[in-house]
Amino acid sequence: MLKFKSLALIIMVFMACGTPELDNKSKSNSDSKKEIKMDYTDHHSFAKPAEAVVKHLDWKAKVDFEKKVISALATYSIENLKGVDTIHLDSRNLIIKEVRRDDKEGALGFKIENTNSFLGSKLSIPISKETKTISIDYETTEGADALQFLDPVQTAGKKHPFLFTQSQAILARTWLPSQDGPGVRFTYDAEVTVPKGMLALMSATNPTSKNESGVYTFKMEQAIPSYLFALAVGNIEYQSLGDVAGVYAEPELLEASAYEFANMQDMVDTAESLYGDYRWGKYDVIVLPPSFPFGGMENPRLTFATPTIIAGDRSLTALIAHELAHSWSGNLVTNANWEDIWLNEGFTVYFENRIMEEIYGKDFANMLAILSFQDLNDEINRMKSEDRMEDTRLKVNLKGRNPDDGLTAIPYDKGYFLLRLIEETVGRENWDAFLNEYFNEYAFQVMTTEVFLNVIDEKLLSKDSSWANTIKINEWVYEGGLPANCPKVTSTKFEIVDEELLAFKEGSLDLETEGWVTQQWMYFIRELPKELSKEQMKGLDQNFGFTESGNSEIKSAWFEKVIPNNYAYADEAVQEFLVNVGRRKFLVPIYKSILESNAGIERAKAIYEIARPNYHAVSTETLDKMLDYKKR
Ligand code: BES
Ligand code: ZN
Question: According to the CATH classification, is domain 523-626 in 1.10.150.130?
Answer without folding.
Answer: no
